Hints:
The structure holds 2 protein chains of 2 kinds.
Chain A (H helix, E strand, L loop, with lengths): L1 H12 L3 H6 L8 E12 L5 E2 L6 E2 L4 E7 L3 E5 H5 L17 E2 L4 E7 L4 E6 L4 E6 L5 E5 L3 E6 L4 E7 L3 E12 L2 E3 L2 E8 L7 E2 L11 E4 L3 E2 L1 H10 L3 E7 L1 H8 L16 E8 L6 H9 L4 E5 L12 E5 L10 H4 L6 E4 L8 E6 L4 E3 L5 E9 L4 E5 L3 E3 L3
Parallel strand pairs in A: 15-17, 16-18, 17-19, 19-20
Antiparallel strand pairs in A: 1-13, 2-4, 3-12, 4-11, 5-10, 6-9, 7-8, 9-10, 12-13, 13-22, 14-20, 15-21, 21-22, 23-24, 23-28, 24-26, 25-26, 26-27
Chain B lengths: L12 E7 L3 E10 L2 E11 L9 H16 L23 E6 L6 E6 L5 H11 L3 E7 L6 H10 L4 E6 L7 H13 L11 E7 L4 H8 L3 E5 L13 H18 L3 H7 L5 E2 H16 L3 E6 L4 E7 L2 E7 L8 H8 L1 H5 L8 H13 L8 H25 L32 E5 L1 H4 L5 H11 L3 E8 L4 H8 L3 H12 E9 L9 E8 L5 E7 L2 E5 L6 E8 L13 E6 L4 E6 L10 H14 L5 H8 L1
Amino acid sequence: MTTKKQEAQKHEKSEDDESSEAHAYTPGLKVKRAMIIDKLRRLPIPGEVLHKVGDKVNYDTKIARTEISGDPEIVKVAMTLGVEAEDMGRFMLKKPGDKVKEGENIAFYTALFGLIKKNVPSPKNGTIESVSEVTGQVIVRGAPIPVDVDAYLPGKLVEVVPREGAVVQTYGAFIQGIFGIGGETHGEIKVIVAGNSDEITPDKIGPDCKGKVLIGGSLVTLEAMKKAVEVGASVVVVGGVRHQDLTTFTGQEIGVAITGQEEVGITLIITEGFGKMNMNATTFKLLKSFEGYLACVNGATQIRAGVLRPEIIIPHEEKEEEKGDTFALGMVPGTPVRIIRQPYFGAIGVVNSLPVELQALESESMVRVLTVKLQDGTIATVPRANVEIIEE
Amino acid sequence: MPALKKPIEDMQYILATDVGSTTTKARFFHKKDGVWRFYVAGEAPTTVEAPYEDVTLGVQNAVREVEELTGHKLLSPDGSGLILPYDGKQGVDLYCTTSSAGGGLQMMVAGLIKNMTAESANRAALGAGAIVMDVIARDDGRQPYQKIQRIRNLRPDMILLAGGTDGGAGQHVMEIAELIKAAEPKPRLGASYSLPIVYAGNKSIRDDIAKLFKGEFALTCVDNIRPVLEQENTEPARRAVHELFMEHVMSHAPGYNRLMKWTDIPIMPTPAGEGMAIQLIADTFKINVLGVGLGGATTNVYSIVEGRFVRSVSANLGMSYSVTNVMKEAGIPNIMRWIPFKIEEEEVASRLMNKMIRPTTIPQTLEDLIVEHAVAREALRLGLQHHRTIATRLKGVQVQRTISDMFEQAIEDSYVKMMTIEVIAGTGGLLSHAPRRVQPMLILSDAWLPEGVTRMFQDSVFMMPHLGVTSTVYRDAAWSIFDKDCLVRIGTSIAAAGISKLGEHCMTVELTMPDGKTQKEDMNFGDIKLVPLSEGLEVKAVITPAKTFDVGEGPGKPKEATVIGGIAGIMLDARGRPLYLPEDDNQRRDLLYKWFTSLKLYPEDPLKELVK
Lengths: 392, 612
């Protein structure tokens, strides 16, 4: 099914029906050494944009600000006073819009010449939002909560969306991971393994890793993740992680891939998948070549309804001639691909052929396949849905 | 709603699409020699997200594939939609669509009492094809601040508020309403429009409700969902939800304003279309049906029992996006129990996590296929478990029903009993694309444990939602296609309820075959067997259970039935109800292997190699 959809999209783009039949189109993860990167930084609700187009910003520059209404608290005034809701108004000391302090009386009731007295204190600092003579409830709204949006990347503003935010532009390396946890953060890149197949173990993490973006190889163990938190590392980027280790580390099983809000002490990005998996050699080499550079990292991942992959952005000024976009060319013989499912999971190669006819797999499913020439020279036949283009 | 372009009896071509979260699926139907048939399918990625942000692009791509495959021109050259109606050379007479793009219709439901008005409101929302994100009730065990926090964190497309009987005290309903207002929930799509609220509670406080929500929410008041305690009336709320889905939600999703102009009839949420297709089976055969749409993100279960229709949408049970949530909900040991070979739990968990992060991949190896089938059993089991919490009766209550009533009233405990279910029908990628037709038959059997005599159907190429939406205007055409091209008759299951020791007698089945010969099968406990009987053929069966087993007439009592064949045939299932699986891993694996080989479930040699 995937293959069909990919092809259909390709059909739309191709002006040559004959050639389009041989194409397939599977977007992969981006691993780019140099490109222009635009990021729209947007407030959750309308507010004020603090800069203008052309302004230079650092990653921590506040570029937009707003306030969201404070948390409300419901106070059962009529019930506390022991009066009917419709009579409650008479006993209110505050009206909607009035500011109140925690502990300050908002209603007062007296009877029998002052022998019976009841009062209702405000549960928090805030403002009286409503007084309901239907339910006898009063809503006290807490102080507005300020929300700032920072630039995330060092660069300049190239577009301002009035009242919403701005587009920050930078130039640098752009690397997507496949899955991450934890939100936006920053740090200097530090490679802590010798090669892309090496595991990150606790002994490789020392005090000098504080605030750093640690680059590993094939796996990060639970103990190593804990050590990274302990020393105050900022990020761990690695090929794979074991499911059980991640569950223990985050304290919860990942059900649906919508992440980024976890507060576990570090941002973790895996570049290949779950289990022990060598980091793609190109990714490793690229990260290694930028050791010591600042990286802007976001672990947020969302697979459904608006695919969002975790990312590592390394701003730099090193110019490199842009290659043609592999993504736009689709998949043709010679396209570099990565196999993303058993039995060749993780293998890298180039497309050898794209037969049109459906073929039976070992599982007996009849699907469109392609053949891939792997790095060791062997030819593997795999479903088209099980490869992704390496976008370098 | 625009008028149909042609009287239905003059129609020649119908096009239906389903705009799914990842794929837009076009199905093209044609009347040939007076008979409506499925013609061809086209698919393309859904274009609801950036950089496209216009669903009509994906629709055009899918339709273009249909054009390429048929040579029949369908799209207007100026990009304004479909050519309508068919003019003898090009175009279609009817275009309709379902949609679940962008996560479908996501709702929050609120009511007064969890098991009463909130439950009724939940049924109404589900009946409209919504995913219910949370049900807030006065007695749901949460403190007001916790409820407020929850509402603030949710970004629903719509809220359905119910509570109180007509003329009764309104104060508590107002409390819930004030809670919602205080939480200031924001709509998921676009911050610029007011969040729709459907109020279906005590009608005597409508003015207060209107005053409270004025200016901040788009309020629609409809008849009370529980006008009196003994009555549930979900239809007005369901209808309002459906209309608001069109007016507010769809119109704010990218490109839907255009798409709405293209269609001849309103866009319907995918589960609503799917449910209508399952209803077609029940209406046509006048039988009790249990259906399922096992998707990548959700599992939708539908039951029609004695005319009562109930739909449940389990938002996070699915085979790709939500596959790890199935693992989380079911627990990995429950998935492992369906695997007949040795494999580490960590390995299975990693594979499922990898499927979740790359949801469009497909199993290449037999080992991978078996792991996915194991997860499917658990997704289906949990989906039915969820369904049963909704398919319940109101305690000791008289029911007001109309033909259009999507649900029914009911019972304290679920009335979905497998012995009363006569047909099980399945749709969704995993079931429809299973390499052998007997695979969905066993997967559904293992998950749902049918009892007695149960026919098993499945969707051939995923077109139930398309036929469901088509049936709203042209039932006969929809049924013709459904019957001839969509419904694959897999076969019939004959299963005895009860438990015994492995190897002890369970039931005897005597089949009078089409050639007149009698075939007698003695089934011992723990056995499963397939008797070939082609599609369309009927045999008379006399099923005699052992005294502790029941096949529908009571323990030990024989049952006579007409059994209909299918692609797989008749499955005689003496594995027990509940299904018996040994505790010991080796014994369990041996038993699974025995079942799988008996049914020729998978290719023999690779399976042998795996279990070695």
